[in-house]
Structures are given as structure tokens and as C-alpha cells.
Amino acid sequence: MPLFWILLFFLFLANKSFAQKPILFTSDEKKSLVKPQFERVDNPYGKVQAEKIWTVAYGQPAFANFLDFAPPERAYLLTPNGSVRLTPLRKEIFDPWFNKPRIAYSLALKPDLPGDYILCLETKNMIEPGDVVRKHFAKTVFHVEKEKGWDKLCGFDLEIKPYTRPYGLVSKVVFWGRVLYQGEPISEGTITVERLRLKPFEKLPKFETGEINFPVLQKTTLLREDGSFFVSFEEEGWWVISFTLRRGVTTYGNREYPFELSTHLWVYVFPQEEDKAKQEKHREKKKRLSSQR
């Protein structure tokens, strides 16, 4: 790896505003076979009795920075009929920064009934950059044929409740949610929003000076007094909405650290349909080229 990219990696890792977090997305296994070192994402839609593969990883999603992930403390699925405990299976995810595999997990979900399934994940306490201990909660919605139950809560201590349906989203849509702590709205704090990148060398937003425009990579918005917030998504792909709450101190090993809870909602965003005028212009151009041959 060129020295420039190594220095850039450590710059990202040291940037505390881009916290490490669990990463959830669906994997397109067929496309991944073409270049197995790279994951291929898929949308979160499924069919009854059809298996869907999910990847559970850890790192900084905005930079395709994947790290080894300890086994989750709890993983469970809210189904139309109740809940099911899940056992994530260890797998490898390619770390493009250091060209090596990292520890991640896969979940093969095969729904029995139509409806919305909520994938819920809790981590153990984890020591993270900044000498802070965090416990993460992460969830996403697996939509199976019928719209029913997408607003169900996992029951996390800290959780994002969606008021906009968290699937069928298109770029530039406005998403409405609320942050709850032990079931009650939180009146202040900051929401962060990041898009998952699977390749670190995707074009990064830059100023004319060549410096990276970090605020574009991570959007922030303040909670309203009732705990609600509104965000949008500019591009297609998997996005994560996150909120972190400081909860005193905790003992990790043989010393005390600041303790935080972090909750994350993963959503998939489809691209906007192409503008009809552009499509018509493209068709006319093709006709002209064909007539000239």
C-alpha cells in the first residue's frame, strides 16, 4: 500500500468523530464470487422460504475500515410471530486498507411468513479509541413481501424508533425518527449519519485545495426537544444513523473508563429514477448514432 494511503488510514482512525461501530448489510453472494475479496451489497428485501445472507462486521463504515469483531453478546430476530435467538457464524471480511481478512460474522435468514423482520444485535462492552468503553446496539429491517411491523422495537436501553418506514427509501428522501432511552425520548444530543463504503479508494469529497471534506462523509443533526430528528441520504447504498449517550464510568480490566451507549439503525437507500428528460435525450442520441452508421 502506498505511504499516502497508510497515512490517510491512521488519520481516519484517529478522527474520533468517526467512531467505530457494528456494520450490518445484506451480501450478494453470487456477485461476490466474481471477486471474493470484495463484498457485494444487496437490498434488504426477501421472499418467504428464500434464504438471505447478512454480514455483521465492525469498523468505520465511511472509510471501508474493517476491524476484527468480537462475537456479539446477543443477536435475535423479531418475527411476525415473536422472536428467535440467532447464532452468528464466523466469516472473514476483506480489509482493503491492509489487504488482509478480518473477523466478521454471517447470518442466514430464511423467513417463514410475510412481514417485516427486525434484526437486533448487542455487543459486549468494548474499549475503543479515546479511552472510552462502549456498548453498541444495532438493528435493521428485513422486509419480506408484506409491510407489517417495521416500527417494532428491539427493546434496547438506547434505541432509534423510526417514524418513516425504514425501507423502500430513495436518495434525497427525508427520514423521521426518535431516540429513546429506556423507552423515554431524549431531549438533547447529536445524530450522525454515514454511508457504508466497501472500497477505501472510492472518490472522497475534496475541497479545491485537495483536502478531504470530512463533513460530507458524516452528517450531523441535533435532536429536537421531543427526541425526534430528520435526516436525508444523498446516495444509494447502506447508511447508518447513530446516537451515543454517556452513562458515567465503568470498570474494564482493572481500571475505570468513561462508559457510553451507542445505538445504530441501518437502512438501505435506492437510487432515484433517472430524470425522464435525460432518458429521452439519451435515446435520441442513440438514434442519431445509429442512423450515422
Q: How are the SSEs ordered, and which strands pair?
A:
Blueprint: H1 3-14, E1 21-27, H2 29-32, E2 41-42, E3 45-46, E4 52-60, E5 65-66, E6 74-79, E7 82-85, E8 89-95, E9 100-109, E10 115-122, E11 126-128, E12 132-144, E13 158-162, E14 169-170, E15 174-181, E16 184-185, E17 190-195, H3 214-217, E18 218-222, E19 228-232, E20 237-252, E21 255-270, H4 276-292
Parallel strand pairs: 3-12, 12-21, 14-21
Antiparallel strand pairs: 1-2, 1-4, 4-5, 4-9, 6-7, 6-10, 8-9, 10-12, 11-12, 13-15, 15-16, 15-19, 17-18, 17-20, 20-21
In short:
The protein is built from four helices and 21 strands. The chain is mainly beta and 293 residues long. It has one domain (3-292).
Describe the structure.
With 293 residues, the protein is mainly beta. It has one domain (3-292). The chain is 13% helix and 47% strand. It has 4 helices and 21 strands. It has helices at 3-14, 29-32, 214-217, 276-292, and strands spanning 21-27, 41-42, 45-46, 52-60, 65-66, 74-79, 82-85, 89-95, 100-109, 115-122, 126-128, 132-144, 158-162, 169-170, 174-181, 184-185, 190-195, 218-222, 228-232, 237-252, 255-270. Strands 3, 6, 7, 10, 11, 12, 14, 17, 18, 20 and 21 form an 11-stranded mixed sheet that branches. Strands 1, 2, 4, 5, 8 and 9 form a 6-stranded antiparallel sheet that branches. Strands 13, 15, 16 and 19 form a 4-stranded antiparallel sheet that branches. The protein starts with a helix and ends with a helix.
